[in-house]
Design brief:
Blueprint lengths: L5 H23 L7 H4 L7 H19 L2 H7 L6 H14 L4 H16 L14 H20 L9 H6 L2 H11 L3 H6 L2 H11 L7 H38 L7 E3 L2 E2 H5 L3 H5 L3 H23 L53 H20 L6 E3 L4 E3 L2 H8 L8 H29 L7 H30 L3 H24 L8
Antiparallel strand pairs: 1-2, 3-4
Helix pairs in contact: 1-3, 1-5, 4-6, 5-6, 6-12, 7-12, 9-12, 12-15, 16-18, 17-18, 18-19, 18-20, 19-20
Length: 504
């Protein structure tokens, strides 16, 4: 996305160069010797192009010297907004595939979002919370377009437009975390890094990087909340044990002592260089598990009351058939009397059905752009094999049409999406089955689909009977093949859940 204004480009390069040099000199403790062309660039006439060329070459060297974590730590100090915007333009226009450059753009976008009027807002703890988060991302996207000015921005690739929808599920997962060690054990940090890498050059598109920045801010806030709660619990536990007469060197569990808990300094950890802070975070997670183990053994009372559950996200914005979302202030409907929260009066779980619809969007997008001989769809975890009839149904577009063929294709697509969800949830469950609690949301999802099987099979049977009445044996056989596949996935999912009973 090159800029159309060479003077502005030179000014940006000068600002980035100044930031890099100041950061390096702060680390080194002495001035950095500069080439003459980089020290005094000229914006006059014919020298302008040469100044830009020399500065870009010199900045390519500095890019190797200034590490992403160096920039992250430098951003803890207040940075002039003009410099931050120049850095953002530099990274976005560079569109580098290097992981280090992507991380720098990631940190800078998050910094700009947090210091923007939009970033000062706090989404409410309500069922339509994600609507507010999505609107915040849209507002910041517009801000990024303003920052880029006249830069040419290539169209966003379709598969990346679909992949960015995964952030809705990630926001929901963040809200599900109840303890700091649960967050640390979840693997969500690495999974998000993998998603960011999957965007390739599209990562720098305003649509993508705005979602990334908002996610980073929301995750960071939840991280800090859980860290604070956990450190307070651990210190309270240490004080209680000492108040009962135990030595500060007493062991809590394994090699963890009361002194380890008493010496935790949350504010000191937050001011540490990133790498050192990560090690402290892992230790705190270990300490929390040690204290929890002590509790389970009945040797001590809990350090504090459990964290109350968060209000669940509503997936309503993804369920509108017309493609529009409800107004941000729209209140979520209350469940009917006797209906479990998150379930509709028909016994369907709106959260899980929302995931199915989002999964279906991803399947359709992939199949419609893929070669027609391709019958394997990559998922976030694993791959879904599809039949020719399923591929045909996923490619079809009968929006708004009330007909047998539309209902038939809808039923085929729904079963394909359910199979995809079973595969993904099965992978997630197996990865987390040895944890204390991270397996449970995935087990609940699988259980929901197993319980929904009769409803799904009944719907398919009705469609097959209608097809036979119309003499469409081929369509009836195609749907029967999909039903057989779905039953196989259901059986495998049921087998996966057999280990749940051992988790008590």
């Amino acid at each position: 996305m090159p800029s159309q204004d060479p003077v502005r480009e030179l000014l940006d390069l000068v600002a980035v160069h100044r930031f890099y040099i100041q950061t390096l000199e702060a680390q080194l403790g002495h001035p950095v010797p500069l080439p003459k062309e980089a020290d005094k660039p000229s914006s006059e006439g014919s020298q302008l192009g040469n100044s830009i060329k020399v500065l870009r070459q010199w900045l390519a060297v500095l890019d190797m010297a200034v590490l992403p974590l160096t920039i992250r730590d430098a951003l803890k100090a207040n940075l002039p907004i003009e410099t931050a915007e120049a850095l953002m333009r530099y990274f976005m226009e560079k569109t580098s595939h290097r992981e280090a450059d992507r991380d720098k753009a990631d940190f800078m976008a998050t910094y700009l979002f947090r210091n923007s009027p939009t970033g000062q807002k706090k989404p409410p703890e309500s069922a339509d919370r994600y609507l507010y988060i999505l609107e915040m991302a849209n507002e910041f996207e517009r801000e990024l377009y303003r920052i880029l000015g006249d830069a040419e921005i290539p169209a966003l690739r379709e598969e990346h437009a679909q992949l960015v929808k995964e952030f809705e599920f990630l926001h929901q997962e963040i809200e599900d975390f109840r303890t700091f060690d649960q967050l640390m054990d979840s693997g969500i940090v690495q999974r998000v890094r993998d998603i960011k890498q999957s965007f390739a050059e599209s990562f720098y598109h305003p649509k993508i990087i705005s979602q990334v920045a908002v996610y980073n801010a929301v995750f960071g806030q939840r991280f800090d909340e859980l860290l604070h709660q956990t450190t307070q619990q651990l210190k309270t536990f240490a004080e209680k044990v000492q108040g009962e007469g135990a030595s500060i060197m007493s062991k809590v569990e394994g090699d963890v002592t009361v002194k380890h808990l008493a010496d935790i300094e949350e504010d000191h950890i937050k001011t540490q260089e990133y790498g050192k802070a990560q090690e402290h975070f892992r230790k705190i997670s270990t300490f929390k598990k040690a204290v929890d183990s002590k509790h389970r053994g009945g040797k001590a009372a809990p350090a504090s009351a459990p964290i109350p559950p968060k209000v669940p996200f509503s997936t309503a914005p993804t369920l509108n058939a017309a493609g529009s979302k409800p107004a941000a202030g729209a209140a979520a409907a209350r469940p009917a009397a006797g209906v479990t929260a998150g379930y509709g009066a028909t016994g369907t779980n709106e959260v899980e059905e929302g995931k199915v619809r989002n999964q279906l969007d991803v399947l359709r997008s992939f199949v419609r752009v893929a070669d027609k001989s391709c019958f394997a769809v990559p998922l976030t975890k694993g791959t879904l094999a599809i039949t020719a009839a399923e591929a045909e149904a996923l490619r079809a577009d009968y929006t708004g049409e009330k007909s047998f063929r539309a209902d038939f294709a809808s039923t085929m697509c729904y079963m394909a999406a359910v199979m995809a969800r079973l595969l993904v949830e099965g992978y997630e469950f197996r990865e987390k089955q040895n944890s204390s609690y991270l397996w449970k949301p995935h087990a609940d999802s699988i259980s929901y689909f197993l319980n929904s099987a009769p409803r799904i099979y009944e719907r398919a049977a009705t469609m097959m009977e209608t097809a036979k009445q119309r003499g469409l044996e081929e369509k009836a056989n195609a749907m029967q093949a999909t039903v057989t596949k779905l039953k196989g996935e259901m059986q495998r999912a049921a087998t996966v859940l057999q280990s749940v009973g051992s988790k008590g």
